Amino acid sequence: MSAPFRTEEFLVNMGPHHPSTHGVCRFLLTMDGEVVVKAVPYIGYLHRALERICENRTYHQCLPVLDRFEYCTSMSCEYAFCLATEKLAGIQAPERAEYLRVIMLELNRIASHLIWYGTTSLDLGAVTPFLYGFREREDILDLFEMTCGQRLTYNYIRIGGVSRDIPPEFIPKLKEFIEKFPRKVDDYEKLLTENPIWIVRNKNVGILSKELALGYGVSGPALRASGVKFDLRRDDPYSLYDRFEFDIPTGTVGDCYDRYLVRMEEMRQSLRIVKQALEQLPAGDIKTKLPPNFKPPKGEVYSRIENSRGEMGIYIQSAGDSKKPLRVKMRGGSYNQLQVMPEIVKGGKIADLVAVMASMDIIMPEVDR
Fold first, then answer.
1. Is 364 helix (H, G, I), strand (E, B) or coil?
2. Residue 25 covered by a domain
3. Is residue 185 part of a domain?
4. 3-state SS of the chain: helix, strand, coil percent to 5?
5. I need a surface site. Which of 10, 22, 106, 193 has the fewest CB within 10 A?
6. Rounded to whole angstroms, how far apart are CA atoms 35 and 168?
7. Domain tally for the chain?
8. What CATH number corresponds to the domain at position 126?
């Protein structure tokens, strides 16, 4: 009599050098056939130590370092540090500078979501959306380049304002982008929203419940897709966001498909904010004058903003007699999103893990800060 058929669990390494881990992240997977029984993420391959580097730089010298914190939205990283420093030192940026900051932050949010849209579709086998998304992202990078000369690490937002005013050709180019981009988002959705393969790969995959999301400190689009209507721009306003009208899109199921829909709508809402900020843009100074030897008073502060991946926070401790911060601590949204993944990929397949990680929009340099 033949022995009964049985399966045994086995281990599979996914990463760290894997195109679908969006950076050097390693998953140690315990598999039962094609089913994921357990997934353990391993991090720390980048060895960046940005927090320690900032503690050995002056406050102004920290800004180029912050650009590398999360490179998809370098404007947000700069602003988060400047906001914390300004709170610590009691500095108020000029109104024109604040409007320029909002414009740059929301354009950078759109550019980040376009990276997500293109790379996520590529992970799941669709090439055309990748090309479409990066096409409009180039328009945004052209606007950044004409303003500050850079296309990835901008070093534009400064303590007390911004480094320089926008050039004369910026506003016409931005108005052109505002005019055409809604049609482009419609094109993006025509490619994927009703696509049967996209629906099968994303609907009811990687379901993140509201309770689990809150328990793991998930924030940003991943939290809102689980039905939690929380956005720091509305619920804990900073800069000038209380002056603008915009909606906060949410999901109902909390699956990969909801995370997709939320980000698509967020691009429309960010463009809506940019349009309002451009219409209200006042004349005036772009930077508050600071002493050459800038030393914030002794104290500590934590400030947070709504980044494209969730809550981005900066903690700064000042000794009061130094041009360098005594302590710097950074918080990004990707770490919490990665932490909750083992809970929501159980019972799925490796292909589902790829879809879930893509939908979470995890950036590994932010995790290995």
1. helix
2. no
3. yes
4. 50, 15, 35
5. 10
6. 57
7. 1
8. 1.10.645.10
Q: Which of 203, 210, 212 is nearest to 341 (CA)?
A: 212
* Crossing angle of the two packed helices 128-148 and 170-192, in degrees rounded to 10: 170
Residue 1 covered by a domain = no
Q: Considering the entire predicted model, what is its pTM?
A: 0.95
Specify whether the CB–CB gap between 80 and 312 falls below 8 A. Answer: yes
Structural tokens at position 48: 């960046």
Torsion of Cα atoms, 121 then 42 then 66 then 54, to 10°: 180
Sequence letter at residue 203: K
For residue 76, the enclosing domain spans: 48-367
- What element of type H or E holds 37? strand 35-42
Per-residue pLDDT of the chain (369 residues; tens, 9 = 90+): 455 666 789 999 998 888 888 889 999 999 998 899 999 999 999 888 999 999 999 999 999 999 999 989 999 999 999 999 999 999 999 999 999 999 999 999 999 999 999 999 999 999 999 999 999 999 999 999 999 999 999 999 999 999 999 999 999 999 999 999 999 999 999 999 999 999 999 999 999 999 999 999 999 999 999 999 999 999 999 999 999 999 999 999 999 999 999 999 999 999 999 999 999 999 999 999 999 899 999 999 999 999 999 999 999 999 999 999 999 999 999 999 999 999 999 999 999 999 999 999 999 989 998
